[in-house]
């Protein structure tokens, strides 16, 4: 059979945000390794963040490429170079960015008409893709960068609206219909869910939900053994097709790939590994809040003081957005010198996968972004959970309540990315870090996390749950292709 006519061609259209792009690029690479022709669509600036890794895959024989089109920043009312949500610094900029996504339709529609791929895997934020793919008869899978549990929790919340039946922001309610008893308060959910009035954000969210509900199915960066009840719930109770293909970070086999996930690290990874190599197994805690967190200098100071008081060895990645030009104001005088040998501070992007899987790492302080949470699980590392925004307060319930591999730091209120929240005090941070790293309970969490890490690795191996799921998806798409000829 002629490979060119039989080969599946799949388009990947990631949302321009680090938490969406990094895993979807990894998924495209996994597809290409299984003989699929994979085309990633993005803007030149975003493409530069992963072009090296794609070039390396091409040299190894993968049929994978990047197609770029300019982002309409000017028409959307954005400054030049604002092509990623991580570059937005206000709600207005965020709304303009979403507007830019709708202006992105024309060139991509043209690509789809030219190539007529066998499937489009797209972020639901590109809600216009519903009509374009329907018109061209192309199946559309949605990828939202999160897991089954948060998707089920969000759907239940939107359907049953239990948060509208409580009297105050701090009163807890149960999210109905889920396999576990999950309690939250109004202050832990995004503003657009609390507010029933029509506005731009609620319209965006409704369009995103419609894009999900009208898709051929969902592709999810997760593995069955992590959240079996929620894989079943999503498929059966919600009647949705879904394929789990994760943890996708495991497609990065060598250190160079692990280092270059997302963007160039600002820190020499060898320096980092050399430092870790001098430490005892499970003795270091890693602190990182992802690429989108913005902290006040007061909060950074509380973290610094808690780390000093905890007596634990640590690696702390403080991104440039988190520093927010206030570096000199928050770091206690002589902090780095005093803790030399005990602590390592990375200012900027850190090679997270590489750090987490080092045997010296015994715990992870995380914002509960889905990618970070999954990378922690995959490395077999227990966590201190510190959700900030997006769906992170949902995500937190998975390690702390369901898997029992996490200690909450005590974050209570959802915040817009650019708002300063009430700082979590050093005593609470120190208490959570100590509970995670020291004592019998810490050992039990570590043991459960290690077992999960083994299951994660097994799931993507030959015959594993995610491997089988991915192969079954490709078989379904191939059958669909041959029947439509």
TrEMBL record:
Which SUPFAM superfamilies does its entry note? UDP-Glycosyltransferase/glycogen phosphorylase
Concerning Pfam families, the annotation shows:
UDPGT (PF00201)
Keyword list (alphabetical) reads:
Glycosyltransferase, Transferase
Transmembrane feature ranges: none
- Provide the E.C. number(s) assigned to this enzyme: 2.4.1.-
Source superkingdom? Eukaryota
The text of the family note is: Belongs to the UDP-glycosyltransferase family.
Q: What is this protein called?
A: Glycosyltransferase
